[in-house]
Specification:
With about 160 residues, the chain is mainly α. The chain contains 6 helices and no strands. The longest helix has 29 residues.
Length: about 160
C-alpha cells in the first residue's frame, strides 16, 4: 500500500498520530507507576480525577461518582489526544522538525500548565511537586515523540 493516500488525508494522519501518542502517554503512566513501586495514587493531574471533574462541570453533571469522573477523564484524554495530532500535522506543513515538535510540545505543556489551575482549580504549576512535574513532562514527551514519529512515518 502506498503512503500517498495518508499523505493527502492529513486529518486522518493527524488523528492516527494523536491516537498513537495517547497510547504512548498511557503506557508512560504505567511505566512510571511500575518504577515507583506500583503506586496506585495519581501521578499528576492528568492521571487524577481532575480531568473528569472538569468535564462533569462543563456538561453540568451533578454529583458524579468517582467512577464517572474517571471515565469522563479517560474519554477526554482519548478524544483530545487524537485531535491534538492534527495540530502536529498542521505544524509540520509550516515548520521543519524538530521545530514543529518543539512548538507542538510547548502547546501541550502550555495547555496543561494553564488549564488545570484555571478549570480544575489545582495548584499553580510552580507549586506542583517535583515528582508531579517530572511525570507531567515525561508523559507529554512520550506523547509528542510518538505522535511526531507516527506522523513522519505516515507522511512518507
Amino acid at each position: 500500500m502506498s503512503d500517498a493516500p495518508l499523505k493527502r488525508a492529513w486529518p486522518v494522519r493527524g488523528v492516527v498520530a494523536g491516537t498513537a501518542g495517547t497510547g504512548a502517554m498511557t503506557l508512560a503512566y504505567a511505566g512510571i507507576r511500575a518504577l515507583r513501586g506500583g503506586v496506585t495514587t495519581p501521578l499528576d493531574y492528568d492521571d487524577s480525577l481532575v480531568p473528569g471533574e472538569i468535564v462533569a462541570k462543563l456538561i453540568r453533571l451533578r454529583h458524579p461518582t468517582q467512577h464517572e469522573e474517571k471515565d469522563l477523564g479517560e474519554g477526554l484524554r482519548w478524544s483530545y489526544g487524537p485531535i491534538f495530532g492534527i495540530w502536529h500535522v498542521l505544524l509540520r506543513r509550516k515548520l521543519d522538525e524538530p521545530l514543529a515538535s518543539a512548538v507542538f510540545g510547548a502547546t501541550l505543556m502550555s495547555a496543561t500548565l494553564s488549564l488545570f489551575p484555571l478549570l480544575g482549580h489545582t495548584l499553580p504549576p510552580w507549586r506542583w511537586g517535583p515528582a508531579v512535574m517530572a511525570t507531567c513532562v515525561a508523559t507529554h514527551v512520550a506523547y509528542v515523540v510518538t505522535a511526531a514519529a507516527v506522523d513522519d512515518r505516515l507522511s512518507g
